[in-house]
Structure formats: C-alpha cells, structure tokens
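Look over this today:
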Amino acid sequence: MSALKAGDDFPEGVTFTYVPYNPEQGDVTACGIPVKYDASKEFKEKKVVLVSVPGAFTPTCQNTHVQGYIEKLPQLKAAGVDEVIFISYNDAWVMSAWGKANGVKGEIIFASDDGTPFSTSLGWTLGARTARYAILVDHGKVVYAEKEPAKDVGVSGVDAVLAKL
C-alpha cells in the first residue's frame, strides 16, 4: 500500500488497539485492558477523522494538535463527524493516559498504531514513530489525506480538516 488520497477506499485489515474509557478507571494512572479497534470495519459505517501524531505528550502534539481537536470537537460533530481517533506509535496505555490527562472521557478515541503497521504501509512515518497526518473517511471512502511536510499542523490540524467537511 502507498499513501492514501481522496477518492481511495480505506484499506482492509487496519486495526488499532485502545483502552475504552471507563469512569471506574478514570484516573490517569489506571491501566484498563486494551481492545482491538477494527478501523476498516468501523470506517465503513461512519464519518471519521483519523489523526496521527509522532508521540503522546510531545510539545506540538500536546500543545497544538490535540488541543485544537478537543476545543473544536463540537464543530466537527456538527459537521457530521461520528468519531475522532488519535493514533501514535505509543502503546494503548500511554494513549489512554494522554486522553485522560487532557480530560477526554471517551469523546475522542486515543489508540495505538503499535509497531506502526498502518503508518508504515502508507510510508508515513518519522523513523520508528508515526508521522503527523490526518485522514478524513466518509463511510469507507477517503475524502482527505495529508501528511505534514514539516513540524507543523497546517494540513493535519483541526482547521484543515474542518475546511474539508
């Protein structure tokens, strides 16, 4: 597989792992049990924004990228987005803690592209890490897919995605 582009079908066989939010395990240090998220199956039935970042708790990802999506989640939902999913090379527990640390209680899924199989298949990695990119999928069809050319959120930030909705 190579980089996705508008008009492509979202590929088959794409899965991530995540820890579903549970109020009983709402503390940032609570681990939970990771489960598989079948993105290929789920994306066929929804309008989804998939956002990839190089790492949880890293400066641009934390201070700019995730904050924009949290702040503008109501606008995304009003535009018909069913789900927003953040992925990184970090494991599912780190991603879960990142969501909790940002006060997210299930409104956004924080998942792991553990070992980066999906990002690698696209050629969208930064060494061992996932690259920074955004993909908008509407019922299995890619509407928008862009990888950041530099350390910025110009094409993967929430405003770029909102402009495509």
